[in-house]
Amino acid sequence: MTDGIVIVGGSLAAVTAAETLRTEGFDGPVTIISGEAHPPYARPPLSKGLLTGSQQAQDIRLALNTQGVMIRTGIRATALDPERRRVRLADGDQVPYDGLLIATGARARRLTAVGDGALVVRELDDAFVVREAFARAARVAIIGGGFLGMELASAARATGAQVVVIDRAPPLVSQLGPLLARIVTRAARAAGVELRISSELRRLDTSHDGMVLELPGAGRVEADVTVVAAGCQPNVEWLQSASLGGPTGLAVDARCRVAPAIAAAGDVVLAPGAPGAPARRTPHWSSAIEQAEVAAAALVHGDHARVLAPQPYVWTEAFGIELKVAGRLPARGRPRLIEGSLAEPRALLQWSDRGIPNAAVAINYRAPVTRLRRLSRPTAC
Amino acid sequence: MRVIVDWQKCESHGMCELRAPRLFSVSEAGDMTYAFDGRDIPPDLQQDAIAAAAACPVAALRIGREDPNAAT
Question: Are B45 and B63 in contact (CB under 8 A)?
Fold first, then answer.
């Protein structure tokens, strides 16, 4: 057992897993192999502080504080041999392992209808490119009205650019539910951002100076800078030859295991859903941490490790609205106002289903995740 | 080992408290208190500190291994 544990991936799940391995008592070699050139960093600031310039690259580093972990950056894994327990790297090197943790994450989804010339924000270098592009642009188009798209729109608008957000459905409704979505979109409109809904999108020109998009039924959008924020796609291609993973992600069991001696965590993972619900990817900060802790423990303790018990938590900030949500999303129905006022808005809300709490949100309100979690669960008494 | 808190960055997400409740606590009002501010962390809490620093989504926590105020 001298090859130790190899972690493929170099972001939050990888760093959390490395640290958890030590906490769980693993003393052998731990190697992180990351395809990114930059050492591990946090992604959420890429569409927030890093874009607005309030944070610099060194502020968002994910320091690896655990002893004895080797990190190799700028090297992609290209294949996996589970029988021989080896990872093949792009330079032809074969890395043997006793245990493997897959944390290769996801990459920005691109749209064929838009093609080249649209930017994305997923990696650190993207954020610098987009920051510079927003500073120069008079007109910005954001394709995708989810958390990322709205955060990007907010950052773009703050530079003074004219901003249009384009989506197939009203922004944020599928993620947050109609009430919370409306709070953000109202703020976006008040800031002068245009929201356009269209089921289809066509690019009309190939001018390198910008883009003209035609939205059937919703007119035309001309932009100097276009950013696609249409979700992320799991990095599973390198696992194909090992017959692991599929286009929707890498499925794992209740302990985040894929196969004997292989576990997985983070944006690449298709985690088991609630009973009766399908497995799904949950590419969020808190999921990466939860899964990495369980996956690392499973590599060390096997069936004696605890199972994944997800406690969903997401947050977003755009157009002066900061939302922190614990529990089941999208939120549906009328919530109970616990504190504050929706008018400002500055409030703490709780959703329940047939009297049982299932979600809580802080809107521009200082409430820690522990409090939100308490409010999002049935109480003991 | 110490944890250096950047209080300006703290957004009261409370991930630190979740990972290391013996080191961090966040009040109902969202104010974070760090139990070892300015002091070394005992060995049995160091793994917690490392986990908490990694969990902070705004990178407000940094692990320092020396007393920043020590004369060199």
Answer: no
